[in-house]
């Protein structure tokens, strides 16, 4: 695949065609994340980014990373050692839900800068680093398959395929990040808002409420607003670039 891959050499008839592709993929992401069966499969990618966010911030906060597990029900857990309370734990718990959306904005910026090949290498590199921390078989399989898809596009895909894959992954992270936040609040309503007097480990929002004494619903609101902002920003980056 051309190492200088950019909008200019994709053979589109017009810039409008490029923008149509971005919009079509956005609609596809909305439809696929809204359908239960496909979302159950695609959510694994969002979970990878979610747990990766926990892991990165845990390390930045000086905590010792003990491993990551990804489960077949699309849930995951990132284990770290350190003080059970305090800023380090708060920021670690906070990082998960914003991570897919923020990563999506970062990838959208690379698309806007005509750095499609760089984007694919970034995805592969991040997954390779994450793989070193995976501690269960399903997690290894999920990360390897996801990385393998990116490698396959780089090796066998043409320029349009690479761009379409990059935009599709970016929209999945952006739209899927919002869908995950909506699911979080639905789950909290179904299970209750957490136990009083002890650490409510049922969700990141409830854990944050226990750690910070800020109501869990406010944390969910923060996640929701941030996800919406990232969708707008990511979409703008992909649609407004004019090489």
From TrEMBL:
It comes from the Bacteria. Coiled coil: none annotated. Keywords: Membrane, Transmembrane, Transmembrane helix. The keyword Lyase does not apply. Pfam families: Peptidase_M50B. InterPro entries: Peptidase_M50B-like. The chain crosses the membrane at residues 20-39, 89-109, 115-131, 138-156, 162-182, 217-239. This is Peptidase M50B-like protein. It comes from Kineosporia succinea.
